[in-house]
Amino acid sequence: MENQSDSEMVKPVAEDLVEKYDILSWSFDKGYWHKDNKALLEKHVEIVVMPKKGKPNKQEKEEENQRQFKILRNKHSAVESNINELEHRGLDRCPDHGYKNFKRYVGLAVAAYNLRRIGQELIEILRKQELAEQELRTAA
Hints:
Blueprint: H1 6-20, E1 25-27, H2 35-44, E2 47-49, H3 58-64, H4 67-91, H5 99-139
Parallel strand pairs: 1-2
Helix pairs in contact: 1-2, 4-5
């Protein structure tokens, strides 16, 4: 995003992704809310989780209190948690100057985060294999 607000990004991103994928649900922050955005997404996506900025009316309040909305909203919190983890791993400040360098820095930070996650998964797989081998040795 360059010189654009969150709510301005919904339409172009949605148009690209809806053509390529069958999206069942889509979750957004309040910053993405706009009545036109929500209407556009509801045409193509089964469940749209887009809380309204400010005070919701009665109909919107009922929608936000539905069980499915709350479940998907909580899943969205996991995404926010991952963003927060990126900030704690050094992405909160960019020591490089210039927009081009900033984009490179963000790409490197995301790659480092993904490598760390892959490493965690590999360690967990090895741990499970070792436990299985121990059980086989004790059973024999």
